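quick q for whoever's on today - can somebody do inverse folding on this one?? i tried earlier but teh output was garbage lol. tokens:
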């Protein structure tokens, strides 16, 4: 009996040793995101897909990709026919939300599609870092994002919710009465980014894919002394009506302590010397947008708005300013957006 027990023990030990090198703990993944390097492209041109976890870790090499429900060999796809194709990705049994890619024959002009993220935040808001982290992850996955940090609450230093960068967007926020408190983030101006945003990364990235906006923006900015000259150009590849243009002045590199009730950014609370970027300092147009004449929004036309204004007095460092322009439809939804740095000239992002 003693010999039998020893034999069993040795056998178990052998199994443990023989399996130890092959044993691997697979991480748990709750959601994944699939993107395409081009959601609109010419027929017979290759589209490359990528996959990421919700934490922004790229898993392209380990994931599988499906086009219209059919598994493809790798992460590239070519079509010789015009049409839309639905793409999903799978990793460890978890499927991404679908995206749509379109192949066209070049007879229509299409533009890069960017998602606008307006982050209503505050230096006093401990949970606002969750949205900041989510935006960081979106930017890991795609460059096709334009972000604006709208700091809120009080401009009174004695107030517990004091924020030195407070911007009065209260009239705009009346559109979102169902979204009480902060943080809150809006995608393309009117779509709430589902909370918790850090587990809904794909809601933002998906808006960079799919149906083409059929309008694109370019800007030329010149800063001389205290004067900004900004040309905003909008090109149309279909007929539109009831459009409005919104133009923001943002500032980067603003340093101020940030409350933090999340595990992100090391879980430090408050975060000293936190750098606040893309901070809204001024809206040059009406906050809801300035109307663009329908006579200017026909297919093939380019609408140009020439703006000249002084650098806003609340800007701390003129070297850190940037400008954002976006076009909204009659319901206030942003159709497309663009950001430009100081003293930069842009071309239209035609595909």
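ok took a stab at it. sequence:
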């Amino acid at each position: 009996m003693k010999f039998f027990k020893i034999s069993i023990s040795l056998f178990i030990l052998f199994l443990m040793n023989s399996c130890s090198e092959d044993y691997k703990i697979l991480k748990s993944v709750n959601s994944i995101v699939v993107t395409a390097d081009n959601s609109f492209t010419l027929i017979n041109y290759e589209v490359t897909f990528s996959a990421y976890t919700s934490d922004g870790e790229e898993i392209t090499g380990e994931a599988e990709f499906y086009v219209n429900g059919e598994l493809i060999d790798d992460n590239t796809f070519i079509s010789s026919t015009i049409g839309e194709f639905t793409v999903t990705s799978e990793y460890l049994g978890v499927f991404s939300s679908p995206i749509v890619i379109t192949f066209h024959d070049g007879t229509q002009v299409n533009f890069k599609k960017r998602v606008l993220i307006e982050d209503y935040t505050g230096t006093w808001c401990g949970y606002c870092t969750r949205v900041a982290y989510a935006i960081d992850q979106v930017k890991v996955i795609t460059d096709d994002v334009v972000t604006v940090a709208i700091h809120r609450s009080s401009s009174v230093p004695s107030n517990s919710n004091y924020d030195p960068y407070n911007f009065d967007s209260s009239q705009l926020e009346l559109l979102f009465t169902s979204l009480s408190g902060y943080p809150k983030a809006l995608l393309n101006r009117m779509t709430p980014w589902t909370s918790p945003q850090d587990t809904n990364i794909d809601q933002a990235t998906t808006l960079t894919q799919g149906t083409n906006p059929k309008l694109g923006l370019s800007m030329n900015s010149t800063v001389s002394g205290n004067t900004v000259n900004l040309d905003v150009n909008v090109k149309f590849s279909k007929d539109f009506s009831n459009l409005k243009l919104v133009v923001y002045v943002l500032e980067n590199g603003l340093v101020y302590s940030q409350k933090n009730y999340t595990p992100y950014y090391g879980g430090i609370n408050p975060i000293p010397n936190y750098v606040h970027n893309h901070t809204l300092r001024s809206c040059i147009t009406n906050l809801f947008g300035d109307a663009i004449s329908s006579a200017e929004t026909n297919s093939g036309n380019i609408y140009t708005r020439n703006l000249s204004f002084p650098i806003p007095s609340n800007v701390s460092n003129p070297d850190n300013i940037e400008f954002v322009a976006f076009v909204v439809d009659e319901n206030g939804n942003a159709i497309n957006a663009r950001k430009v740095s100081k003293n930069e000239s842009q071309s239209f992002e035609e595909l």
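fwiw The radius of gyration is 25 Å. also The longest strand covers residues 215-224. so keep that in mind when u check it
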